[in-house]
Amino acid sequence: MGLVLSASRFGKLMEEWSKKYDIYAPALFEGSGPFSDTDQVRYAKVTSLEEIVFDKKSNYPFKEAILPITQVLFYFTEDEVREAAPRGRDAVIFLRSCDFNALRSLDAIYIRNVIEDHYYKGVRERAKFVVMGCESSFDNCFCVDMETNTCSGYDAYIHLEADSVTLDIVNPELADSFSFESGENAQITPKFVTATTTRVNIPGNLDASVAGSDMWDEYHTRCTSCGRCNFVCPTCTCFSMQDVSYTDNGKCGERRRVWASCQVDGFTDMAGGHSFRANKGQRTRYRVLHKVYDFKKRNGYHMCVGCGRCSDACQEYISFSACVNKLEKAMGVK
């Protein structure tokens, strides 16, 4: 269903959605950026079109709308375990094409893996996705080279014009019981980015020999192991488990899973004091090759979607695209 609606008419549709769904979209948080007097764009519950940021890339991905930073899995007492109640309402999530493609990787890890994660699956199946059109790329984006600049299979597509909203509703549930009589029917062609300033070249013959290259040595001194790159990545999925005991009774409490980072100290700690990848350059190697090499060997497509958020967030200005562009020269060189 292709429509051109006035902003006020689309606002009425959002009001209808809000009765049934929690609506998540990139929103502006003034004064909450990483530096003084700076803003940031991240996902939040919204109720109006005016709250949605269309002209900036979100600093954080949509991921936390379906994969919370901290999630209680179950509660325990001395005698029983009780699973945490699922989220009460379905969700409508506004996101860009690169992030929508990131869902494929999240699903591969949490649903199509050896063991299906029903916590993630329960939330994922109750979410609907509205893809936001991009006319041009943002800083550090390289989605075209990663083939994530376009997408299909979404529930709806939206593009904001000067005084109207272009909307293509694919899933009839999002149009259920709402009258579009005041809208103009239209044939909608999604606006997807066709070129980016940042480019990457992933060698077609990339192999594991690059892991032994000395190209990773510089990142041992540059990386500070802050983990920002993981937390802003739409396809990073690692988490740690935490048991929290209640102070009034240490035998009662809850188990949570919390986002974790493969770049921070302690991530690979094991019983007996063993630890892998103490060298920060090797942690960078692990992250880069996971995104553009070994995940593809297993699943047939790259994990990285080219959003560039990791490069945006790095306090040491480590560019993920620059790392990738060094791989061809580094193969077989030690």
What topology does this entry show?
Elements: E1 2-6, H1 7-20, E2 21-29, E3 40-45, E4 70-76, E5 81-83, E6 90-96, H2 97-110, H3 118-124, E7 127-132, E8 156-160, E9 164-169, E10 184-185, H4 217-222, H5 228-231, E11 239-246, E12 249-259, H6 280-299, H7 309-313, H8 320-325, H9 327-330
Parallel strand pairs: 2-6, 6-7, 7-8
Antiparallel strand pairs: 1-9, 1-10, 2-3, 4-5, 4-12, 8-9, 11-12
Can you offer a commentary on this structure?
This protein has 334 residues and is α+β, with helices and mostly antiparallel strands. It has a domain at 2-66 and 84-184. Helix content is 24%, strand content 22%. It is built from nine helices and twelve strands. It has helices at residues 7-20, 97-110, 118-124, 217-222, 228-231, 280-299, 309-313, 320-325, 327-330; strands at residues 2-6, 21-29, 40-45, 70-76, 81-83, 90-96, 127-132, 156-160, 164-169, 184-185, 239-246, 249-259. The strands form two sheets. It has an eight-stranded mixed β-sheet. A hairpin with a 2-residue loop joins strand 11 and strand 12 (249-259).
